[in-house]
UniProtKB/TrEMBL annotation, chains A, B:
Coiled coil location: none
One Pfam family per UniProt: SpoVAD
Annotated source species: Clostridium lapidicellarium
Origin organism lineage: Bacteria, Bacillati, Bacillota, Clostridia, Eubacteriales
Classification via InterPro entries: SpoVAD, SpoVAD_sf, Thiolase-like
UniProt superkingdom: Bacteria
Protein name per its UniProtKB record: Stage V sporulation protein AD
Amino acid sequence: MIQGHQSWIFQSKPIILGCSAVGGPFEAKGALAGEFDLLHEDIWLGQDSFEKAEKKLLEEACNLAIKNSKVKKDDINFFLSGDLMNQITSSSFSARSLKIPYLGIFGACSSSMEGLALASFIVDSGGANYVLCGTSSHNAASEKQFRYPTEYGGQKPPTSQWTVTGAGAAVIGKGYDRPKVTSATIGKVMDMGISDPFNMGAAMAPAAVDTIEAHFRDLHRDPSYYDVIATGDLGRIGHNIAKKMLKDDGFEFPQGVFTDCGILIYKKDQPVFSGGSGCACSATVTYGHFLKEMKRKKIKKMLIVATGALMSPMSYQQKESIPCVAHGVSIEA
Amino acid sequence: MIQGHQSWIFQSKPIILGCSAVGGPFEAKGALAGEFDLLHEDIWLGQDSFEKAEKKLLEEACNLAIKNSKVKKDDINFFLSGDLMNQITSSSFSARSLKIPYLGIFGACSSSMEGLALASFIVDSGGANYVLCGTSSHNAASEKQFRYPTEYGGQKPPTSQWTVTGAGAAVIGKGYDRPKVTSATIGKVMDMGISDPFNMGAAMAPAAVDTIEAHFRDLHRDPSYYDVIATGDLGRIGHNIAKKMLKDDGFEFPQGVFTDCGILIYKKDQPVFSGGSGCACSATVTYGHFLKEMKRKKIKKMLIVATGALMSPMSYQQKESIPCVAHGVSIEA
């Protein structure tokens, strides 16, 4: 039910029955390689296009999440998914093979938490027994669509980020003894006038800050409530901007609480510029790493704030700045 | 709450507090011109790109729906919107100017009813006091993105359809004395192997049939329950295929009940080939025409089944067939 202006409290505490994280070769060399359910050595996944490889990543993540949840696929009422490809083809083509009634969503890289928020809301409200949500991204498919094909070997500025090749999915239902989704905050679109597609972190930081502050306001919470508050893919530059903006507004975080999935996923010596990005960044770090940390009893309460840059190559060509959004979901042990 | 496998019954009967239909110059010459709230003579709407013109159509539709609903914009909890542009920029850029917490959706031309279904579900479940949902399409922007720029003057086969230039929006809340949204059925992705992007009607017909049959099954209803069952944008060819498929499965409709927004919107002498299409087709015909018919007491119960073709130009180039989906929403006086 609604809490404050833009948040939901899930009173029946829907749980994550099963989830999954699938990654590519660059993620297999990353800092969280051990946390993935499945890693691929081949960036093509044996497919004849990067787009088909991304679809395969998402299908694998969905099927693994279903397997881990021990729910029968036919019992799942709805599949919620979104991704970065034009017309979210990775999601829609996965919906075709999954054969589960399908709601397509789009929030760019915030799609991971948009899907988890809506899935949890639907289950909590009795609108489904089981909902599958997922998202994916593929480095080479994204670069080709949004910037330049990777084969060109174009140079990038240090503010740029590295799109994660991977997919994450989760099956939400009711029950106990699993991580509970307890609340969600739906973000407003924020745009501070940044128009540089090689500096998404800075563009998205104000959206993350706005959603985090709305979450605290709506739920009467402060940073001390959480063990982890993780932004989706601000990277080092965007995350530091967000931290400073929050500090200026009076929010300080205990050491180690405020982090970013895009900073955590790769090793420091990997050439990822400001950090990881892409729909799969927050999805794989949440479903792969954080939920395992919860199982290992290292985290009890976390807030994942997935951030999305909502521009298109066309809007950039037409001199528009970059509108951004962030959706926050809290998960508790 | 869930009813059957893939439908929702709205027990608190969320109502359409206000809605709107905005159209372009071709719609102003159409069969339903008198049903629009606002019509533009200029296909550019004074903007310097077709994409910006589409965004303006959606912003206008949203602001008109809010005005007609008499709800204060700041009281609206969420804005749900999707469109055909890559990265649904019309919706996301409208969300930027509206400043309402935003959930982006994508179901191609089914986005109209995906948005209305989710908005009604959220209000019905106490997840919001007010939700705004909207969608838009622009003929020249769509042709440029999906096929060829209209300036080329390319020829088209008779199976092709004419994308509606327009936008529709609705504000959903609780109350009485207005049309009630009573149920919704979320569709599965169907793909019968059609790969011709100039024959969307035929590609989408099986999705419409699957959703209509799921709706009857889940809600224990048959065609006699409704005064109008309207598909979104199958056009003449797709609609006849759907009619035949439904007849083969034992569903016959009383005279005049089964229709299609894409057939209704234009006059017979307009050169629209098989009929209208685009996200705005079902949105403007529903929010402009059908709801006015309900006010005029000519319709009491209707089921709108918006259909969407989920391919992209890239998936077509990669020799994929066209996956399609349809979402049905019932509205009662």
